[in-house]
Amino acid sequence: MAALGTDAKGEIDDSGIGDMDLSRLPVHVGCVMDGNGRWAGQRGLPRTEGHAAGEEALFDAIEGALVLGLRWLTVYAFSTENWRRPPDEVRFLMRFNEGILVRRRDEMHQKGVRVRFVGRRDWRVPKRLLRRIEEAEELTQDNRRLTLTFAFNYGGRVEIVDAVRALIDDGVSAARVNEQAISSRLYRPDMPDPDLVIRTSGEFRISNFLLWQLAYSELVFVDVLWPDFRRQHLFEAVREFQRRERRYGGVERPRFGR
Ligand code: IPE
Ligand code: IPE
Ligand code: MG
Questions:
Q1: Rg (CA), the chain
Q2: What CATH fold (topology level) applies to the domain 2-7+24-199+207-238?
Q3: pLDDT over 60 at 1, yes or no
Q4: Mean pLDDT of 23-51
Q5: Which among 130, 157, 220, 251 has most CB atoms closer than 10 A?
Q6: What Å distances lie between residue 9 and 3, 22, 65, 105, 107, CA to CA?
Q7: What does the pLDDT read at residue 258?
Q8: Which long-range contacts (CB under 8 A, 24 or more apart) does 45-52 make?
């Protein structure tokens, strides 16, 4: 297997970047990795095989992020609503994510990836997985090339609920509640809002991903099922991002001379 950010010969593989304007990259890209079950279904395989096949997609996307020079990549791996799935699938996903951390941790560390998790670290998440999460975060905490955040047992609404609880615990009066007071109590206050969010599998929804932070994100929906996603899809989404005009509620940038 090639190391992250390199091709089989260990050289940087930047094929597919082409004429992209590297001075106008999104700082933070979020990814809703969806469609694993359908990918498996199309092949007559159990849903869990789709999740397993998603690992290659994820690491190719990470390589793409490294090649491009993205600084933040956040991937939705397990939502607070995914506990509704059959117990066998949930059990598989817990072990699978633990396995990824064990298998890939050193490789990510070597490439300067800082691994972090956002989500509720509650009793439902197996202790062994929580330990692996803490180990990976600790090992990679000083890396700065790319921050790879796994949204795991994550729900945007629950994150806001947790921030409101923290506000109350901190004794903040109603008059002092503002956006900054809430932002600073989210799970990772230093994480910039995503500029671009990609959702695979042709679904046009957010499904509780980073609700607060998505206020002005550019959304790109792609038909490809997650296990078929590769860095070229990431590059294509970034190109689409670069064609958009972000206005943040303002007006079009006035033309020169007006
Ligand atoms: C995304 O793929 C992975 C997780 C939600 C864990 P799905 O498992 O949702 O796949 P589909 O949407 O059923 O095809
Ligand atoms: C969103 O996908 C969650 C993850 C990708 C982890 P879902 O498959 O759970 O979302 P819905 O149910 O289609 O909205
Ligand atoms: Mg799905």
A1: 19
A2: Undecaprenyl pyrophosphate synthetase (3.40.1180)
A3: no
A4: 98
A5: 220
A6: 9, 24, 19, 21, 16
A7: 41
A8: 47/89, 48/88, 48/89, 48/92, 48/96, 50/225, 50/226, 50/227, 51/92, 51/93, 51/96, 52/96
Closest CA to 97 of 156, 50, 140, 152: 152
Query: Atom of ligand 2 at shortest distance to CA of 78?
Result: 6
- Distance (angstroms) between ligand 3 centre and the Cα of 216 equals 24
pLDDT grade, residue 6 (50/70/90)? low
Catalytic residue numbers, as ranges: 34, 82
The model's pTM: 0.94
- As a whole number, mean pLDDT of residues 225-251 equals 96
Ion ligand 3: residue ranges with CB closer than 5 A: 34
Q: Each residue of 100-120: pLDDT tens digit?
A: 999 999 999 999 999 999 999
Q: Is the CB of 205 under 6 A from ligand 2?
A: yes
Atom of ligand 1 nearest to the CA of 77: 6
